[in-house]
Amino acid sequence: EQLGAVYRDLKRLSQTYNIIVWTASQVAKRSYGKLDLDISDVGYSMRKANWANLILSISSSEDEPGVLHVSVSKNTFGKRWLKFILYTDFDRALVDIQNKGSKKCGT
């Protein structure tokens, strides 16, 4: 599959030049609106996930503007299944990691 080959080539590029390659991918349509995402929610090709060393799943809800739910869905070199919340203030370019119920960034 062509999309899987692109991710394979990106991984080879990163290994050849000893650099980090960071990309983004959308979730499968069935996962729209879901806050608790995991590796099975990767859209279009699971081969992307097979080649990745780290997958961060980031989701949001219209009910919580400025709040991003992040989970480590895959981590070849460390812990996975970690979950945390990012509070964003894009007007002031701020992002803060806090426990739910704590003050949001900039307040």
Furnish the topology, listing elements before pairings.
Layout: H1 2-17, H2 46-51, E1 54-60, E2 67-75, E3 83-89, E4 94-97
Antiparallel strand pairs: 1-2, 2-3, 3-4
Keywords:
single chain; 107 residues; alpha+beta; 2 helices; globular
Quick take:
It contains two helices and four strands, in the order ααββββ. The chain is an alpha+beta fold. Strands 1-2-3-4 form a four-stranded antiparallel sheet, with no helix packed on it.
What would you say this structure looks like, in words?
- With 107 residues, the protein is of the alpha+beta class.
- It contains 2 helices and 4 strands.
- It has helices spanning 2-17, 46-51; strands at 54-60, 67-75, 83-89, 94-97.
- The chain is globular, with a radius of gyration of 16 Å.
- A hairpin with a 4-residue loop joins strand 3 and strand 4 (94-97).
- Mean pLDDT is 83; it is low at 100-107.
- Strands 1-2-3-4 form a 4-stranded antiparallel beta sheet, with no helix packed on it.
